[in-house]
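Reply to dn_fold:

You asked what the input looked like. This is it:
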Amino acid sequence: MQRIALLGATGSIGESTLDVIARHPQRFEVVALVAHRNWQKLAQQCRAVRPRYAAMHDPAAARSLAQALAGTPTRVLSGNDDICSIASSADVDTVLAAIVGAAGLASTLAAARAGKRILLANKEALVMGGRLFMDAVRDGGATLLPIDSEHNAIFQCIDRDGATCDLRRILLTASGGPFRTRDVATLAGVTPDEACAHPNWSMGRKISVDSATMMNKGLEVIEAHWLFGLPRAAIDVVIHPQSVIHSLVEFADGSMLAQMGNPDMRIPIAHALAHPARIDSGAAPLELARLAALTFEVPDLGRFPCLGLAYAALDAGGSAPLALSAANEVAVDAFLGGRIGYLDIARGCADTLARCDVREVDSLDDAVAADAAARRIACTVLGLPPASTMTSLAA
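and this is what came back:
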């Protein structure tokens, strides 16, 4: 019986995880559920699974949650310190880290330092923490399993002794999002609803916008660099509109392996939850005979400049990926709020990256300082008030 803390319970990954867990009540116990401020949904989840702990980042939301759960066995906590305590608690074996953005780094670091089994859906822990996070995994004796469909696919392809030694390269697939074939001249008028209308995947609004700009894929390149210890030159991106092949690896002998499945996040979640065993995810089986075609394209960096920015940040190293991710959070939040246009996302990220000093990130304090500086610069270049910095590392 795995004892699980689910960080980011009310998002799409959290909901999919609870769906998989509900199919296997004898294997998993949900010890803790954590969310940002959606206390109504968290209250529903708590009534269904009756965890020992529930925590909200937002103190006001925690107070509302405590009132809603009065008389239940769930203890309500709040704030970053309490969430880090949950992630490192002796009551927890497995931490599924699915808090969106920079706000998830501290708790994921706490889980790593406590030697937990970490199921990583929060790519910012690696994009922003990088060496800091991987050192914590190694020093704490933690086990790290990727949940992102692309990185989970790569992990499945190389999950054997010595596999990384004979890798030539990995290929991350991308759907191309809703604007893969749209006239570039019309992108300035893109609305938030259009950007969130992903053709294949059902995701939250922030990650849906990241998919539309392909910033999500760029951040995944950085994540793959740290997860698999590969240089930038050994990590490629290919657009695969059908989202059936989730990523591929190429070996030194020229052979390639691919992991395939329907675009359903329950598949990588179930794989990581049960690894090295396999369990039912609830996803529909892939019917190969019904597939019309599997096609592939080279990404157009003119259409998707955010992908090029991620390559540049990885090459720059240090705090550059952190600055890019922080600027993107600010820009996407402003776009979803109607304060900037779609094309301003890439412009704001590029200007922020150009203005930020690149420094080493040797501690969480270093990360917090670099994150705050990047958010201030992003607000300046986008013409936003400082209060528009969204959820930061310091939250």
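Residues 175 and 207 are 13 Å apart (CA to CA).
Hope that clears it up.
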